[in-house]
Amino acid sequence: MLEKVIIKFMPEITKIKARNYHVLKKNSGFLLHSSSFSLGAESHLWLPILCLAGAKTAREPNALTLQLAGSLHLFSLATQLHWSISDDETDPRKDKNKYHILMGDLLYSLACAEISRPELQPYLHDFADMIRGVHMERIRGDLSADEYGGLFAHPAIMINLGETACLWGARSVCENTCITEMPRKLGACFGQLRAHWERNPLGIPEPEVWYQAWDICARIPSAEGRAIFRTILGALGEKWEGPNRCRNASL
After folding, report:
1. Residue 195 and residue 152: Cα distance in Å, rounded?
2. H or E stretch at 94
3. Which domain does 222 fall in, by range?
4. Which H or E element spans position 224?
5. CA-to-CA distance for 215 and 221, rounded, in angstroms?
6. What domain count does the chain have?
7. Model pTM?
8. 195, 158 in Cβ contact below 8 A?
9. Distance CA 32, CA 35 (A)
10. How far apart are CA 101 and CA 83, in angstroms?
């Protein structure tokens, strides 16, 4: 879904993955399976890409943007490992639960260490809120009859993560709240739309969220930022509205 956007950020994504690859090797003595860092594993890159795209709404991503995006990448890997843990006694993957728990905990600790750097401390509270929110929703899900089908299909979580990632990217290059507010709202829309896409790729999303996202895109001052977010929207919406309509809407 994000192939076109990943290509636009290939230099930044390559740096982020290389650094996190090194951090994992240094701290654990072994690496996650290489597929976790492959180009095709876009779920691990969703939040870093939104962070980089958020920066593009105002200026070019800088060193601070890359650090934040890298922390979000570690957070994504940790969260997805924890959410992959199976409660089904007959599931053959259950033997890997201990590994996933320990590796997820390690990744969370590494992400916390990254975000605790002096230059990133203004983002530490948001980061703690993300971790708390993800775990609280997982606990609620285990105690209720709601079935969302996974992390990326959970609306409340995805709205929070999308909003935070886009806002971080914008704040890393611009302190003007009038400018950073647009990517924040857009991130919330993207989170809700992504959750809907995961649950029902062929089902039409709530119209107000879909058209609100396009409206916010149109008001982004940076032409390059507009183009990137419209590309993401087009990728999400091809199955809903058809490729021709989405392509025309992004012009």
Report:
1. 6
2. none
3. 3-249
4. helix 223-241
5. 13
6. 1
7. 0.84
8. yes
9. 8
10. 9
